Amino acid sequence: MLDQQTDYGTATNDTLYGVGHNNPPADPLDAAIAPFADSMAEAENWLDGKSKVETKGQHDAVDLILKDIRKAGTAVGKAEKAYVGPRHKDWQDAKAKFAPTLADLKDQKTGLAKLVSDFKIKLAAEKAEAQRLANIAAKKLADEAKAKVAAADADNIEEIREAKIAVMIAKDAKKDASAANKDTVTGLRTVHEYEIEDYSKVINDIRMNDRDALVAFMDEYVRRNRKARRIEGVRTWESKAAY
Hints:
By secondary structure, the chain is an all-alpha fold. The chain has three domains: 5-99, no CATH class; 121-182; 194-237, no CATH class. It contains seven helices and no strands. α6 (199-209) packs across α7 (211-225). The protein is elongated.
């Protein structure tokens, strides 16, 4: 570990950052970080979870590395912009090629869905009623058949025949009810709508049942608005921190 500012820059880590002194990197990222390879390697040494800054020499050494790391960030940012810019433009052009047609198709889909929506809802209601009646009829015939089977005397062939016929009719009715239940209207989806009637009750409900969500919202709200206005229950102060 370095202790003096004058010792800074002696360590290297070419393998870690893919930088060679004799062969300048062709990759734009490698080219951007090449001048800062030693500083990045020294930063790795300092950031080992054990090192501490306890002397002026150590402070000056770390501060010098920090300045180089800032420069490295700027250099990589510029390299990224130069590298990504043209590719981002190509991506934007490709998106622009498809966007009008996709937007038009979306508008057509929305318009057609709205056009048939009322009729679909009406048809679905009619089918639901038909399903309800078919289920009622099937249950009624099943109950009647069960009663006839229970009441039929084993020595009365006519009662036995009537009971068997009733059972067959009940089975057919059950099949019809099953078919009716499967006969649905396509292109309809369930929409879960809501309306907030009392915001204070909602806040209290969240406070009681999902306090973490409320705390997360308050933390984010205070973070974004603490400078704009004074917020009751929030203490603010200024401090210093390295950057």
